[in-house]
Fold each of these.
Amino acid sequence: MDPRPPHPSLRQVGEPGLPLLAVPFALIAVVTVVDVLAPPDVHLGPFLVAAPALTASFAGPRMTGFVGAVAVLAQVTVAVTRTTVTDLNHTFQIIALVLISVFVTLFAHLREAHEKQLIQLRSVAEAAQEVVLRPLRDRMGPLRLASVYLAAEAEAQIGGDLYAATRTPHGTRLIIGDVRGKGLEAVGDAALVLGAFRAAAHQEADLPTLVAHLEAAVAADPDGTGEPADDPGEAFTTAAVLDIPDQEMTVRLISCGHPPPLLLRGGRIVPLEVDHPAPPLGLTQYVDTGFAAQSFSFEPGDVILLYTDGVIEARDAAGEFYPLPERAAHWQGDGPDALLGHLCADLLAHSPGGSLGDDAAMVAIERVSGRSS
């Protein structure tokens, strides 16, 4: 699901609405009529330059050039009506209007080319999101899933938050994480963790071994560049890794410095806080600890909500953090998609101007039956 409006296509660049186009033509008509009727010592022709200049701010070069040509024609009409085209004052007005029209038409061309480049970059970002942050399947075994990603940077469709899910012979494994940093600079780190998870999630027999594999991948390439980081302690990823068996009404969880998932059960919110959390991926070399999975009850009808700190750290105009558990407890809809739709709209309404200060991701998982389908 994507709560943001779709980006305009290349066909839409430089296509203004009719109300906007009416403004420069109305301006030309008014200036022309008033200039023709004005006293001999009053000249309003210079105001005609406003028409192509205004058009260049919202229209493409063709429309800007056309408005400029109409303005020049209007200036010639005024000159013929009042005196003659060869009148020195009108001659200089016409020359100045032609030069300014050419200049603003060039400006409109450059602006349109820049807009096309931006749209192409957005298309590349969307393609990168499809490859790196693949959409989750709606149904995996006995689970229904939904996910949403909100990038803090308006031009970036993917940033430092990550999530993925994969099937195993006995159940479903999921990860949600948040690499240090945000925006496009964190894409490499996110791709590294996701690649390691997808490669090993269906191979490693138990959850601690899988998380140890993720830690080894991050430690070997801490900044996602293939080279040692200048300061390895500055590159890390918080993560929550889950194993949900098909035939057992439980969920096994390892938290690596990540906010605790929320279990929604019968209108109650239960944070799944592990007794022995591990440090973030990339930092276990500095802390002598292991990876221990903790089990929690997960029954049919229950929903687990995974999220990144960009959700709970979103502030409103008064500086108050977003109260995710409270808002999730008020939800009375049905299904993961409806839950994320409600929370996403509420989160954007909570944030001033609908703009988040950090990337935010959420994944909702509902167990719909006790057996895989």
Amino acid sequence: MIPRSLLLRATMLVALTAAAPLAAWAQTFPAKPIKLVIAFPAGGPTDITMRQLADNASKILGQPVIIDNKPGAGGTLPAQALQTTAPDGYTIGQIPLGVFRLGYTTKINWDPIKDISYVINVTGYAFGIVVPADSPLKNWADFVAYAKANPGKLTYGSTGTLTSPHLTTELIAQKAGIELQHVPYKGSADLSLAVLSGQLMAAADSTGFAPQVEAGKLRVLNTWGEKRLAKFPDAPTLKELGIDIVQNSPFGIGAPKGTPPEVVKKLHDAFKQAMEEPSYVAALGKYDMLPDYKSSAQYSQFAKDTVAREKVIIEKLGLAKGQ
């Protein structure tokens, strides 16, 4: 029989030998372009700000960070793509808040907490509800009055079913005692066109609607932050309207489960530095967004906490599987 001590030494030697190439490979990362999958179409606030962040990170990493737009499915396609991607750091994805709701609303064979390597949280959205500038709904009181007089007839759009704009608007409606008709779109560009053309009476979105508001084509009825937005100082917050909701929907970047810690750290450090560049802060500022840094550990804990919190919201709205 082989002595136990000799067997243990042999096992350790095999493990160290296997780990050596991995450690050496991690040290040379990245050796080729990195793909960053984002959850919304080209031309919207997410795409524009993430492209600036990717450009900044490219210079730090010494390799291009290429944006790949995968809109649809409530912003969850990048996270789903990570489940079938090699854990080598060369494909990473945006993780919107909708990812943390997915297990309650859809049958999936992966866990949003355990099956993503959380790299870094980078920002969050500023949201609000807008109507066409010529709408007879001049303020939030008009909106609520019309909805109460016409249950289910007031149409509003969002950037997708079970996204933060959709769920938050449904919570708002529940608290206001009104019933709305939701119409989902793949992104802000399509949604803006729909509300501007009169296909919709209102839109709930991040502040990608800012150019249309500034051009006098849309009117902001409310915003969803803790404080009023500097760009729309006349638009009240939900809290000012008596609705105790604050929503800024933080999002960041994840990698496939099993990505080496050394690679996660390199990605984290590069994107953290990229976040601090004035060009990224300026890009966010166009949409009243701010840098919102969370480290890999903090972002992982945020994922756990958010999954628990979103369960309560999904069940309250009656949208959980089987409800």
Amino acid sequence: MSQTVAVLGTGKIGEALLSGMLRGGWPPADLLVTARRADRAEELRARYGVTPVTNAEAAKTADTLILTVKPQDMGTLLDELAPHVPADRLVISGAAGITTTSIEERLTAGVPVVRVMTNTPALVDEAMSVISAGSHATADHLAHAEEIFGSVGKTLRVPESQQDACTALSGSGPAYFFYLVEAMTDAGILLGLPRDKAHDLIVQSAIGAATMLRDSGEHPVKLRENVTSPAGTTISAIRELENHGVRAALIAALEAARDRSRELAAGTKD
């Protein structure tokens, strides 16, 4: 934690990471931030005691640069950083679909790059962050990335060839659960429940089910079967889900997310 870390493009995820690092013991003096707007930078300084700098200043002074901009903004940021990033900097990219090779090609030869895909539960220290090494990144670089992102949740190392699949599963994953809760809440209202009661029932059921999946060690099929009595209410609901192709729709949705991640890597915006 003696190294200086700069979070570039500090939006919601960048701020969640910043606050998690502070809770994890990083001194504010070792943390730099950049933001598109001056008022946003001053807000971060007031809230966390960190130092706002320009992107060029961050590149010149920080030991580790964490790029948290959107994929479509990565090219502009790299153009700005390239003249100022020496080969001994660690660059961590959190942009979906952007490969380490594409970043390495824009920077000084030999710069180590680590690719990380995290998700919005970083806001509540329950993120799932998957980490991959570029061609110049060492085990120490990966460990440093794990230390940083471990401050806001769990980390997992994967080959970069699996990053697009991880983006589809966990990077975008929270949105699927929010979508499901939204649909189930509407169903609860249709069945005669007030919205607030339907919401509370579903959210607590989701928390309980997730905790069982995490802590029991049981396969999800086994846990589902434990709830599914012969000729009961649950199997009737499961039959309707199967009749409507929900499983196939989920598989197709995740394939679409993976494909979009690949398109982003290729520079496709629309």
